[in-house]
Design a protein that fits this description.
The chain is an alpha/beta fold and 649 residues long. It has 4 domains: 4-165, no CATH class; 182-422, no CATH class; 426-459, no CATH class; 463-648, Rossmann fold, CATH 3.40.50.620. It has 22 helices and 29 strands. Strands 1, 2, 3, 4, 5, 6, 7, 8, 9 and 10 form a 10-stranded mixed β-sheet that branches.
């Protein structure tokens, strides 16, 4: 018996295969690969064996990267299974059943010719597949020939999930309902022009595959294209190494929440800090945020940091609408190495520290209630942006500028979505269920809450935090604490608990407590395992050997911003300026980027100098080797001096 609902609601690919196996005697199962039938890390030999044996297939897909593939399974019997002989070959499988019932499958890989990136399943001339990257499944009732299910599994990713047409819109609608003050903008990218080609565009259409010079062709002919100046990127970058860099991607990983992030990377033109691509000219303070999510077009393949959509959009806000106080973040990933599906993108969306009035821009189709910025025809000439493509399917820096300008105009035309925070989602804004209240009264209650919130914003306490190792506690630490306390109502000092310092943790903790005992509204607590520990920031405990290395500090700071700060109501974090230690300087730089997204201020306090010398714990440890008590006394409080002398005896 066919359990159609169970099949249509299954998203786990392994479970989906098992259900198909159980029902296959009553089903027609049609599969067509788009782009590639394999490639992701989850497509192991063990998995492909399970897939093949479960459905009775003849082809092992383990190493069939970028090949076309199609198969029909009729009541458990495999018909017309085909695999491409090379990456260019297109496949067509036609099956004519009773009463002229016609099934046609068309498959083409990433480098297919004349067609590419196709995974179509037609039933009596109508496409019923998702036709997206990976294995496209169409399941029919073998008796009635009615459609049971249609889904796609992206085989180029780390996790296999069954995706259906309405999944994305439903999830996005659920997200909008849960975040009534957040604006979701669907961005439709410009199409390659259809006429009035520039010389470059005409060349792109004339070489490569049937649809022209795509990204794959650029990668395989890059040296030749640079030398002959047949690619417009030579108009933007004179050094071939720069072109190679902007077409590359930093390494990425999944954090403890399963969110794809980049390791911190510092290059000449491409930089990632705090897990995301750098956006240039971000303001230190802001009221509203704009988050961009998506693949390589959002990340900015071909572009230096200053030439991504996010950076150009930030520039527009700074120069044309500074009073709106927007900050822009680039949460784009790189398709060739990021290997994401909508599920992964949705995890990014859920991880964003959004608040009412913020804007999220993505390439997803807009759900009901969302808005669409349609730039489909924006690249048709004439326009004044020059070369906006560097191949038929990817944009140049000028293309990103075009999109950023159009996006800014779109947001401005909608009055910067200023009414987003007080929209009509009254039920979500007012927490109680007040049956006697009319909609007008509910709106009045919401408006009253907004006015009260403004009062609270003026009087709410400023809870500050400092994370210190205090190895040992110096007058420099005391100076930072006093300056910080003057800028907040209460101050929490986290003393690094990891016992990998010169002085034991318990001793350091007691020195800090004694050193601030006379100060009111100061609390000293251990940092635990989740603030600057070997779990969250290993490099901190080996700083001397890491001075010339780019370190990734995003995990430590993300945990602080998402988990620690909200628990204690911390809204400002203080750090000392770091002119000497490059590891700590990188940590402070990333802190500005990450904490700002969670509405946590970062205040850098200049270091204390005594007789022109910067006071530091490392200096005290150096003096301690020679027991230079006269000099040490200048840099530490009495409690520390007594402790050091006691330890020296």
């Amino acid at each position: 018996m066919i359990d159609a609902e169970s099949l249509k609601n299954e998203r786990n690919f392994v479970n989906y295969i098992n259900k198909l196996k159980e029902m296959r005697s009553e089903l027609i199962i049609l599969i067509a690969a788009n782009n590639t039938p394999a490639g992701g890390s989850a497509m192991t030999q063990e998995f492909t064996k399970f897939f093949r044996e479960s459905l009775g297939l003849g082809v092992d897909l383990y190493d069939k990267f970028r090949l076309a593939y199609a198969v029909c399974i009729n009541r458990g019997m495999v018909l017309g299974e085909k695999i491409g002989r090379n990456r260019q070959e297109n496949l067509e499988v036609k099956i004519l059943g009773d009463n002229n019932f016609l099934i046609q499958m068309i498959s083409a890989g990433f480098e297919g010719n004349p067609r590419r990136n196709v995974g179509i399943v037609e039933v009596n001339g109508k496409n019923v597949s998702q036709n997206s990257r990976g294995l496209n499944f169409v399941v029919l009732d073998a008796t009635t020939l009615e459609l049971v299910d249609s889904c796609v599994v992206d085989t180029f990713v780390d996790e296999f999930v069954c995706i259906r047409e309405n999944d994305t819109k439903k999830l996005l609608k659920d997200y909008m309902d849960a975040h009534p003050g957040v604006v979701l903008i669907s961005l439709r990218l410009p199409h390659f022009p259809t006429q009035n080609f520039s010389p470059y565009e005409a060349y792109y259409k004339s070489v490569g595959l049937a649809d022209g010079m795509n990204l794959g062709y650029v990668f395989s002919h890059l040296g030749e294209l640079i030398e002959s100046k047949k690619c417009s990127l030579t108009e933007f970058y004179s050094n071939p190494r720069d072109i190679e860099e902007v077409l590359s991607s930093p390494q990425s990983y999944k954090d403890m929440y399963g969110v794809r992030k980049f390791f911190d990377y510092r290059g000449h033109l491409v930089n990632t800090i705090g897990g995301i691509r750098v956006t240039c000219n971000q303001p230190r303070t802001s009221k509203r945020s704009v988050f961009l999510i998506g693949p390589c077009h959002i990340f900015g393949i071909s572009a230096a940091d200053e030439h991504t959509i996010a950076s150009f959009l930030q520039k527009n806000f700074n120069e044309k609408a500074s009073a709106e106080e927007f900050i822009v973040y680039n949460y784009g990933y790189y398709l060739m190495s990021g290997r994401e599906t909508f599920d992964s993108e949705y995890k990014i969306l859920q991880s964003l520290p959004v608040k009412s009035g913020d804007i999220v821009i993505s390439l997803w189709d807009s759900p009901l209630g969302g808005v669409t910025c349609d730039l489909s025809n924006a690249a048709e000439r004439p326009h004044n942006y020059g070369e906006v493509f560097f191949c038929v399917d990817h944009f140049s820096p000028a293309g990103y500028r075009l999109m950023a300008d159009k996006l800014f105009d779109f947001i401005k035309e909608h009055n910067f979505f200023k009414n987003a925070a007080t929209n009509d989602k009254i039920v979500n804004s007012v927490s109680g269920n007040y049956e006697k209240f009319t909609p007008n009264l509910l709106q009045e209650l919401q408006n009253y809450k907004v006015s009260l919130r403004k009062i609270y914003d003026k009087i709410k306490p400023r809870i500050g935090a400092i994370v210190m190792n205090c190895n040992p506690f110096t007058l420099g630490h005391r100076y930072l604490i006093e300056k910080s306390l003057a800028l907040c109502d209460r101050l929490i000092i986290f003393v690094v608990e990891e016992d990998k310092s010169y002085f034991p943790f318990e001793d350091r903790l007691q020195l800090v407590k004694k050193g601030v005992a006379d100060l009111k509204n100061v609390m000293v607590v251990p940092s635990g395992k989740f603030i600057i520990s070997t779990l969250t920031f290993t490099e901190y405990f080996n700083k001397s050997e890491m001075q010339n290395v780019s370190v990734d500090t995003s995990l430590d700071l993300t945990i602080f911003a998402k988990e620690i700060a909200p628990t204690l109501g911390i809204n400002i974090r203080f750090v000392g300026e770091e002119p000497l230690d490059r590891v700590t300087a990188q940590y402070n730089e990333t802190m500005h980027s990450i904490l700002a997204q969670y509405n946590i201020e970062v205040e850098e306090i200049p270091r204390l100098k005594i007789d022109g010398t910067v006071v530091s714990a490392s200096l005290v440890r150096e003096l301690l080797q020679n027991k230079d008590w006269d000099k040490i006394e200048n840099f530490v409080p009495r409690c520390t001096l007594e402790y050091l002398k006691q330890q020296a005896t």
